[in-house]
Design brief:
The complex is a heterotrimer of chains A (292), B (353) and C (383).
Chain A: H1 2-31, H2 38-55, H3 60-83, H4 91-113, E1 118-119, E2 128-132, E3 135-138, H5 139-161, H6 163-173, H7 175-180, H8 185-210, E4 213-214, H9 220-233, H10 238-259, H11 264-278
Antiparallel strand pairs in A: 1-4, 2-3
Helix pairs in contact in A: 1-5, 1-8, 1-9, 1-10, 2-3, 2-4, 2-8, 2-9, 3-8, 5-6, 5-8, 6-8, 9-10, 10-11
Chain B: H1 2-33, H2 39-65, H3 72-93, H4 97-123, H5 128-147, E1 149-154, E2 157-162, E3 173-177, E4 182-183, H6 191-210, H7 212-222, H8 224-229, H9 234-257, E5 262-263, H10 270-283, H11 288-304, H12 312-327, H13 330-352
Antiparallel strand pairs in B: 1-2, 1-3, 4-5
Helix pairs in contact in B: 1-6, 2-6, 2-9, 2-10, 2-11, 3-4, 3-5, 3-9, 4-9, 6-7, 6-9, 7-9, 10-11
Chain C: H1 2-21, E1 33-40, H2 47-66, E2 71-78, H3 83-95, E3 100-104, H4 107-120, E4 123-126, H5 132-135, E5 141-143, H6 148-161, E6 167-173, H7 177-193, E7 196-203, H8 212-220, E8 225-228, H9 232-244, E9 250-253, E10 275-278, H10 287-300, H11 306-324, H12 333-344, E11 349-351, E12 354-359, E13 365-366, E14 370-375, E15 378-381
Parallel strand pairs in C: 1-2, 1-3, 3-4, 4-5, 6-7, 6-8, 8-9, 9-10
Antiparallel strand pairs in C: 10-14, 11-12, 12-13, 14-15
Helix pairs in contact in C: 2-11, 3-4, 6-7, 11-12
Classes of the chains: A mainly alpha (292), B mainly alpha (353), C alpha/beta (383).
Chain lengths: 292, 353, 383
């Protein structure tokens, strides 16, 4: 029973990583950049939802929708102001700008909302289900896993069937050719950022519902872990983000439960290194054959 | 003819960098001895030297070899704790401060070089962002391990343990104490010593870049497959760069640690790795002089922004973004390109006339 | 054009240098004011502690200056909870000719600045850096808070004396000096007293969200009391997750737990029955505390935590010592340092965080920890 409960906890933690990892992986797939500010968009999303539901007593749905809206706008604004002018620049220059953006968001949040921690009220309430003796699953865990699955299915349909989704895939394959086929590359990239940021808002709300400690740096560590998950699964691949995230969550919980809480992080990263040594482009990453 | 000319030009450039650095050193030393510089500046001299070493060593990996590394602070950590450990042992043997520090720095460098070799192995299979994530992972692993490492020294000898604190007799002390890091370090680092380490590192890097080895490394960066096809040994050169770069970061770590009475493992986290990467990118990939200047300015900048008090880190972030946007703006680039073009034509005219 | 570029570069560099040296000129802020300085994390993720200490000290300085007589000037510099930045911040204070130091708010930075104040012979009294490494071997470094060993062994003693639990679980933060310090002394004392510790688990800064494994471990080991030597943010998460997994042991905290009731959005019913040892509670009804809490709330719209109270006490303790030792503003830092050491090792001080505090020559404070239990959302004395 202890084992099962650890598995469920792992999947739940991993689902959050997976939703965040989706943001990284979609942006990477199309813009070929690591958006380090993504973790901080999560934090902004959580704060917006917190203020709406706890301070102004609005219904949870309004809080979530508003936080998605704010994050979407924020994502587009960040892309337009900081990343778009650098489209021709080296990937390292974009990386540093993204890091600068991450510092900016964290410090702005600290000035606006102080670093006094806020306790986020779970959007699905407390409580849970006693499945069996010694196996208790909270509502948040169930909702997190369910939301993750829904998002995954939705995104797969979106990128596979809709025109916009196809445009996205075209852009990630070859921007020049996509443009020649009449796809507006800039709009497509902006929409990718918008979707990624909206997902970040959902991730933020779920993250803080499960772990209700809200500070300006809330997003940074889950951000790094989710980035790791994205690479783990093969960056640029949507199912890869899901598998990477869930595996990372399970490994983390198992390392804590069965080896040692002290070095669980070291174990997570060691497993990552071993996996990458066996599969150098992640679990589902594309094999790129090099041409001279 | 042409090859010789460019070589001379880089040599000249290197001499200018070295000369400029020496000049700055002398000026700062005079100002410091004259009591003109503030305590704030005096206190930052050693860390600035350490960050300069960090920046040029990372530039070797990122700029010259062309592999992104996100875990450079891990080597600094190995160097800091390894150096403090050996330095403390040396104190038992010798009273000479300089000897103590010297042995510590060399030991810190060697230990970090070994860590660099360890990381170099996966480097051979991975590329790009996957490599970057592995270096990030190594940085995190080093941090986690130092966090649970306890090393004690007493009359019965050395005690090493993980997770649980090791028992140390009353006549001894814990050199490295888990999350607390190393405390009670004697402050041995001086500006002159840090500067000498910096100059040694610079000489090594300049000679490396200009040598046959350096050209092979840059060939790997520019086109790996072509370089391989002319018989350049990828494994050898990549491992070489990783271990040299790590050794220098380790030396910087020791110098840094010996400037403070305490150093904690959390100091060398992901943020520090990123900080050093910012120095390198802002100074210009492959430009040693740029790294030096960027490291000095960006270390001073947050201190100079103290007047903004609560807003200073916000201002720092904005400055960072604006500088990146500015240096990559095509219009500003064109402006500089034109400037250099004019300079060149003017020179050629002079040469012809 | 080439010249242009050079001129621009030179201009930039000289501007930076000028601003760097601008601090050079000695500040003539009048010789009738004693300059007190401290460093603390005013930005970054630990800034909640630094800001609180700064605000607490500010209120004390305002009150003292309003009394007439001795006048203080306070300067708090940001150290972002980092040893390197702490030394920089301290150097800024030195450039400002600081006469008495409030050390640093957090432990690791304070170990670094304590070495500096010791070398420079500036008296330092830290509000909240609790490790013994802070004061070890330094005659001019004093603490206002309990040293970690006191907290750890006092907690073990308390749990043993009151028979609060038979099987104890401990969760601590293994990359935090404060938390590990208390854990180690707790374990030593627990072994001496024969307390049955059934589960010990840790977390760190990178994994301080998910406590399911730690709580599962405690639950499966059948622990009926969980000892939480940590700050209140993590403790709030643990209480929340324990409830989510239907686990309801007794929880026992340390002074870092104070502040949990004032967390915005915290469901105080979660903390029902939580016990903690703390020297300060914002709900106390004595005149001093009420005065301090109202002033703090008026200014900052927040309820002060123990960091604010400790810093407030620090300024008042320095004030008392200055009065008794007849310190005047024109004395050098070194002269003041000797007087302060003499005063602190002999005086007894009543403040917000305890009555009849005394200091030993090792710089550690002696004050009685108060056992508190949370009932209906307020602290109630546990005796």
């Amino acid at each position: 029973m202890e084992f099962l409960s650890n598995v469920i906890n792992g999947i739940s933690l991993g689902s959050i990583y997976a939703i965040i990892a989706l943001g990284y992986t979609m942006v990477y797939g199309i813009a070929k950049m690591l958006n380090f500010a993504h973790g901080d968009v999560i934090m902004v999303g959580a704060y917006v939802c917190f203020f709406m539901t706890s301070r102004y007593d609005m219904p949870v749905v309004v809080g979530i929708l508003l936080s998605m809206f704010v994050c979407t706008v924020l994502g587009i604004v960040i892309e337009r102001l900081a990343y778009k002018p650098l489209r021709q620049a080296t990937s390292l220059a974009v990386l540093i700008t993204a890091i600068g953006m991450s510092y900016f968001l964290q410090n702005a949040a600290q000035l606006l909302w102080t670093s006094n921690p806020k306790v986020f009220k779970s959007v699905v309430g407390d409580g849970g289900i006693q499945i069996a003796e010694g196996l208790y699953v909270s509502h948040v865990t169930l909702v997190t896993i369910a939301v993750c699955v829904i998002i995954m299915i939705g995104l797969t349909i979106f990128t596979g069937k809709t025109k916009m989704g196809k445009a996205m895939r075209a852009c990630s394959e070859d921007k020049g050719a996509a443009q020649l086929m009449g796809i507006n590359v800039n709009t497509t990239i902006s929409i990718t950022f918008a979707i990624g940021s909206a997902l970040a808002a959902i991730a933020g709300v779920l993250l803080c519902s499960a772990y209700p400690n809200l500070v300006p740096t809330t997003g940074s560590m889950p951000g790094i872990k989710a980035f790791t998950a994205a690479v783990f699964g093969g960056i640029g691949s949507i199912p890869g983000a899901l598998i990477g995230g869930v595996l990372l969550g399970i490994i983390e919980i198992f390392a804590k439960a069965y080896i040692s809480t002290e070095i669980s992080d070291a174990i997570v990263f060691a497993v990552l290194i071993v996996v990458l040594l066996v599969k150098p482009t992640g679990l589902l990453g594309k094999k790129i054959s090099e041409k001279v | 003819m042409k090859g010789k000319k460019t070589l001379n030009k880089t040599s000249k450039n290197n001499f200018i960098t070295m000369g400029g650095l020496l000049l700055v050193y002398v000026i700062v030393l005079i100002l410091k001895e004259g009591g003109i510089t503030t305590n704030l500046i005096n206190g930052q001299l050693v860390p600035i030297c350490a960050y300069m070493i960090m920046a040029i060593s990372l530039n070797l990996t990122v700029g010259i070899l062309g592999e992104l590394s996100l875990g450079h602070a891990g080597f600094m950590s190995v160097g800091a704790f390894g150096g403090v450990f050996v330095g403390t042992l040396m104190q038992e043997v010798s009273d000479s401060k300089v000897l103590c520090l010297l042995v510590a720095v060399i030991a810190g460098g060697l230990m970090a070089a070994v860590a660099g070799l360890l990381i170099g192995v996966p480097v051979l299979r991975l590329r790009g962002d996957y490599l970057a994530i592995v270096t990030l992972a190594f940085g995190q692993i080093i941090k986690s391990i130092v966090n649970i490492l306890y090393v004690g020294l007493d009359s019965e000898g050395l005690h090493v343990s993980f997770i649980e604190k090791c028992e140390v007799l009353d006549d001894g002390k814990l050199i490295i104490s888990g999350a607390m890091g190393a405390t009670g370090i004697r402050k041995l680092s001086t500006f002159t010593f840090a500067f000498i380490v910096l100059v040694v590192c610079l000489i090594v890097i300049f000679n490396l870049i200009q040598s046959r080895t350096g050209r092979a490394i840059m060939a790997l960066r520019d086109n790996r497959i072509a370089a391989e096809s002319v018989g350049i040994n990828v494994t050898k050169y990549k491992l070489l760069v990783f271990s040299i770069s790590a050794a220098m970061a380790g030396m910087a770590g020791t110098v840094f640690a010996y400037n403070y009475s305490t150093v904690a493992p959390t100091k060398f986290d992901f943020n520090t790795s990123i900080l050093v990467l910012v120095f390198v990118v802002l100074g210009g990939l492959g430009s040693i002089r740029g790294s030096l200047i960027a490291a000095a300015l960006l270390t001073l900048l947050p201190e100079l922004l103290r007047e903004f008090s609560d807003y200073r880190m916000l201002v720092y972030a904005i400055v960072l973004i604006l500088v990146m946007l500015g240096t990559n703006n095509p219009k500003i680039r064109d402006f500089f390109a034109k400037m250099f073009a004019r300079k060149k034509t003017a020179k050629e005219e002079n040469a012809n006339g | 054009m080439k010249k242009m570029k050079k001129v621009v570069c030179l201009g930039l560099i000289s501007a930076m240098m000028l601003s760097a040296f601008a601090g050079c000129g000695k500040k003539d802020s009048g010789s009738d004011v004693i300059r007190i300085g401290g460093t603390g994390p005013l930005t970054g993720d630990a800034s909640v502690y630094g800001q609180a200490a700064k605000r607490g000290a500010e209120i004390a300085v305002e009150e003292i200056n309003a009394l007439g007589g001795l006048q203080f000037e306070l300067n708090y510099q940001d150290d972002t909870h980092d040893t390197e930045k702490a030394v920089n911040a301290y150097n800024v204070l030195k450039d400002w000719d600081v006469q008495i130091s409030l050390g640093s708010v957090t432990t690791n930075p304070c170990i670094a600045t304590a070495a500096e104040t010791y070398a420079d012979r500036i008296f330092a009294l830290t509000p909240s850096a609790s490790s013994t490494d802070v004061t070890k071997g330094k005659d001019n470094m004093f603490q206002m808070c309990f040293a970690d060993p006191n907290q750890g062994s006092a907690s073990a003693q308390y749990i043993n004396d009151k028979q609060l639990g038979t099987k104890i679980a401990i969760i601590y933060k293994n990359d935090d000096a404060y938390s590990t310090g208390i854990y180690e002394t707790f374990m030593d004392k627990a072994a001496a007293l024969g307390i049955n510790v059934v589960s010990t688990t840790t977390f760190n800064t990178d994994s301080q969200n998910d406590f399911s494994v730690q709580l599962n471990d405690a639950k499966n080991a059948g622990a009926d009391l969980v000892f939480l030597p940590m700050y209140y943010q993590a403790a709030a998460l643990i209480l929340d997750q324990a409830k989510k997994m239907n686990y309801a042991p007794k929880f026992f905290g340390v002074d870092g737990m104070d502040g949990i009731l004032t967390l915005e959005g915290f469901d105080t019913t979660l903390a029902e029955g939580v016990m903690l040892l703390t020297p300060f509670s914002a709900d106390a009804t004595d005149e001093k505390t009420v005065n301090f809490v109202t002033k703090y709330q008026e200014k900052h719209n927040e309820i002060p935590n123990q960091f604010a109270a400790d810093a407030y006490d620090c300024v008042y303790a320095i004030y008392e010592a200055c009065k008794k030792g007849e310190v005047t503003a024109d004395m050098s830092a070194e002269e003041i340092c000797d007087i302060m050491i003499a005063q602190f090792t002999t005086m007894s001080f009543d403040g917000l965080t305890g009555a009849g505090m005394t200091w030993g020559t090792n710089g550690e404070v002696t004050k009685a920890p108060k056992g508190m239990v949370i009932q209906n959302g307020v602290y109630v004395g546990l005796d």
